[in-house]
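Q: Here's a chain of 273 amino acids. Please give me its 3D structure as tokens.
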Amino acid sequence: MMKKNWIVFLSALIAMASVALAVHQVRAQEKQAPVGYEDTPMLPGGKWHVHDGRRPQPPVVTPAPFFNEQPPSDAIVLFDGKDLSKWESAKGGPARWKVEDGYFVVEPGAGDIETKEKFGAVQLHLEWSEPTPPEGTSQERGNSGVFLQGQYETQILDNYNNITYPDGQAGAVYGQHPPYVNACRPPGEWQSYDIVFTPAIWHNGEVSTPAFITTFQNGVLVQNHTEIYGSTGHRIFPRYKPEVGDVGPLRLQDHHKRVRYRNIWIRPIKPPE
């Protein structure tokens, strides 16, 4: 009888431990990532901090049905659905993200990838899709990014029913300018960026003209000739780096989320003589 009671007691302990573990896992999943900061540097104008969560959220706009934009005849096709031959690891060596069924996907832990060719002023088109089902909150949901000249990030994030600090949501110049509106599609659907970028102009070691960016997300204008304050980063005040020069690679970010990419092309901007 004592042996039977002991077995019952052990079974009860195991059951209680299983319940406690399940509760802990649920609470861990419910723990939300921060949606803003107030101890970061002030942005120009003295009204908002970098990543300020009190900044008004961009209004939500429903974009028109997706249109798969084909490259113009003079575009440089950076990904045609087959391979990553025009890309490499930002740390050197081959790009180690996976190509699948006409798209490629971030390989968490493999590091950022960037184009082998370098660019200055450009028109850029790329398409991306967020993981589904969605996981995480704020900056932990479907985070990636596209960096012009390897320095200036347009954020990629799942902001469909997901709040984060406005200067860190999809379509933002990260840490600087929120998008005009939130034009995100649901996770799993393909989305697009069409970007026009002009780099900073230097004179005698100083920036005489800043970089500018115009961005359409899913056909909706989210940045309009927006001044870029300098190289982007987390919780920092942006500054221009002289070593960047006139050209740089297009970089895509490994933020440990399996964001998919396809149909990427770029056109160097050459003003008429």
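Q: Can you summarize the key feature?
A: The chain has two domains: 1-31, 38-268.
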